[in-house]
Input
Amino acid sequence: MTAKTLSKSDLQATMDAWVASGGNQHAAADKVGIPRSTFESRLRRAEQEGIKPSASLDDPNTVGPLKGKIKRLESALKGYEKQNEQAKIIKDIIGDLGSKIEELNPPAWVIQSRDKASSPGVPTLFVSDLHWGEVVYPSQINNVNKYNVKIAHERMGTLVDSAVHLLKIISPKMDYPGIVVPLGGDMISGNIHDELTATNELNSMPTVLDLYGILIGVITALANTFGHVFLPCVSGNHGRDTKKIWNKDRHHTSFDWLLYRFLAKHFDADKRVTFFIPDGPDAYYKVYDHSYLLTHGDQFRGGDGIIGVMGPIIRGDTKKRSRNAQIDLEYDTLLLGHFHQYVHHARFIINGSLKGMDEFAFSNNFGFEPPQQALWLTHPKYSITYRMPVYVDRKRAAPKTEWVSVPR
Output
């Protein structure tokens, strides 16, 4: 049976009946002689098409329309009250940390030189693109990589051990005032694609809880080793709970942000640990006199098989520098993740990923890159000095060879 095509006059009659009945759908459906479910469907269609009540129903002396208006206002008020209740619940759970984590209040050791000739400066260990909870199947990428929650645990342990080992090589006395650990987003895999929803090892909330416990251990270990930890944080695109990334309230629709806030609450009483979690997509801070701008990188799009990611990143960096110059927030170095390619450029640093090569990168013929994260030092006089990747896969011992040789 072919469904009746609704005319504009049918939708107008539906809207007028609803308003005249004071917002009572049962009474309005009886008035026009159709079932309530049908009436509800027509009313929803009328609202979607922007149908307004007839002018004659705007008479302030007509009781029915006034009742309808009151009912609509009461409904809207309940919606706002529900939002306020949710906001209050979140605030009660997370606590009032606004001045500490939403405003830039870096610890003194980040911006003041210790004036020790032996000190190599402040190390930065960039942590991003963990994609916690995702599974990479080795059989689908020629067995060049494998990833799951167990492997993610192992790689995080290797990351901390290797970073500390490398920094001990540079300064055996570990003469560092502290360590900066930018958290650059895409901390969890999320359910933003159907294939991830179907293949992730854990759903988003259990993933957040698992990673929360691991990061508590990581931050505690770094605080014990370096004395102080400063953590600027931005959200990525994978942890969102919306279909598309929001420009408004970006952080408040992201599991990355929720993870950061829980971590900040956990370390609230630990004066060695300082979080900086701005509400916007960028975090601006300085180490000594060297200024950094941390962003995730999903704003940068484009590129091709020849120039790869460099084109969109250089364009995006140029636009950000222009924007920031207009608001007196010029920066020296842009930090970003998202592209899973470690690049240390004079103007920007792109982080690698903990996950490594996956099915998407393999299918699109992207270059192979081992799982790694970026590590460098900022010197009070010479700015960025030592720079190095931290490989997070434990490898078998290399065969013993001469330190240099000429193939024959």
